[in-house]
Amino acid sequence: MSRNLALQLLLFLLTLATTTLAGAEWRYGRSFFYGYEGFLWPPTITWSQVAGGLAFSLPFLGFLTAHEFGHYLTARFYRVRVTLPYYIPIWLGITFGIGTMGAFIRIKERIYSRKEFFDIGIAGPLAGFVVALGILGYGFTHLPPLDYLYEIHPEYRVWGQNYASYVYFRPDDLAIGKNLLFWLFENTVADQALLPSRYEIVHYPFLFAGFLSLFFTALNLLPIGQLDGGHILYGMMGYERFNRLSPILYTIFIFYAGLGLLSLEVNLEEDWWKWAGYALYLLIVFRPLFPQPSQGTRLAAGVLIAQLLVQVVWPQVQGYNGWLVFGLVLSRALGVFHPPSPNEAPLSKGRLILGWIALVIFILCFSPAPFIVD
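The structure assignment produced for this chain is given below.
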């Protein structure tokens, strides 16, 4: 066994362990090492509950594996040198997480055509999407009785099916956002009497794994830079047209993400750092879009002014500030532009249709506000 293969296998096993522990934490509503009274020893989660975390880790890792092997097998089909997936385990035991930062493959040589970029880029999301449909289909057709939720939250019994009207008043209550596909499953195949509140989805491992699968599918299908969606749109449009459109889409993404972040009721003594920090953020993320720093500065100022104008005219409009973190990653690590390929021949009609199907999948999976802390 080669050193790389041994590392990849080790990372997969570690990720299986960390996602299983994270799944147990979410399913049973308790942190492994930390509770309301501080650090806990011995842990309050039992080994049988840890095993229950497999109901989250196995479907979610099944999705990640299908996604990455979609890329891998397509790259091998084109004889592009590529590594097997590297999984990224992460688990602290003192706070809730999902046990992983995903997985990636390394393409070790240049891709030579728009067709190859398109095929390799689209294969991962399509494969992962099929698995996500299976996870959600099973989860929504196998909802447990309400007694399952009462075992986690015994205090809900007194309210019965109306518990949602009484219990969500804490400032740190976490709700799962919605997307069109999740909504369709809820309203077509699920037993409405057993359907949990959006605040309780995290206790239902197949639903939670399915939602995360849709979230990561949409994230990868964003038509920006060198994300899978960027590869797809580049294949459809070509180098010059895509690289004119991608920074526009990125600017719209940042504009939406920052809406409502700053309050117009300004106390300069207390809030100056928020304004200064966000202004610096905009300068940092827009700088790579232009050859001249002054151009990035003008765009940053324009976006900030436009966001404030929206807040004045429509104060109820709120973006999703959590996207700002991913916006920084896009700008400074992944890149907003796409490299050219030696063969810029246009795609076939069939591939263009498949690209539009990928856009529909993105719309179905995308959550404007995926995780909501009320």
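Interim note for the steering committee: The beta strands are 34-35, 38-39, 86-89, 100-104, 174-176, 371-373. The radius of gyration is 22 Å.
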